[in-house]
Amino acid sequence: MPKERSINPAAAQRKADKQKEIARSKKQQQASRNEKLARRNPERLQRQIDELRELQASGALRPKDADTLLQLERDLKGVRRAKEALGVKDEPRPERRHDARDEQRERRQHLGKRRRDQEDAEDGGDTDPEVRAIPMPRDTPPPIPRDKFVDPQVGADGHRVPHSLPTKPAAPASKTVYSSAPQIRDLKREAVRFMPSVVSQQRSRIKGQGRLLEPEELDKLEKGGYAA
After folding, report:
1. Closest by Cα among 35, 34, 72, 32 to 52
2. What secondary structure, in 3-state letters, does 32-50 show?
3. What is the pLDDT of residues 139-169, one digit of tens each?
4. Which intervals hold domain Wbp11/ELF5/Saf1 N-terminal (predicted)?
């Protein structure tokens, strides 16, 4: 007999819960989609389909309109299935023949209207009777009057008024000074710059700088011309 695989009860329970959650999510998505489709007007979809079929019969249907026709037919089937699933009956709606521009215009006007009666009905319960009796304007309030800005630095003639600050002092003019005094140079100090390093070290040693010299070394340096 094949060896039975050991089953982890906790893992099996998590898997079952996950499957239930997926099924519940799919069911909710389908219900939401059915509600959305059930709100659409199947009569309007049918009219659009009939108009495109007339163009198709006359041979004036464009490829783009053919794709639109297929999409409308699929939408109509989905709307009818959604209404059947929710048990919604088609109620006759007033026929309105408007083009897309009229529909957009009506939609903008509807969004731009202010429903004052509805707002008054909603806010009336929380308002005191004395405050509710105050008449409110039906139109937008007039603009708040604003004082005209007057620049204090500009006069009545439109020219700028001179300020009261003191005048800026004039910058002193730069002067060039020429001198005829002779330039004194220390040639001895300048000559030291060109002295070889070996000679400079020997001079320092004979002066006792750096380290002490033996008598033999001192005699050797004096014979070489180095004086202390």
Report:
1. 72
2. HHHHHHHCCCHHHHHHHHH
3. 777 788 888 887 777 777 778 777 777 778 8
4. 4-80
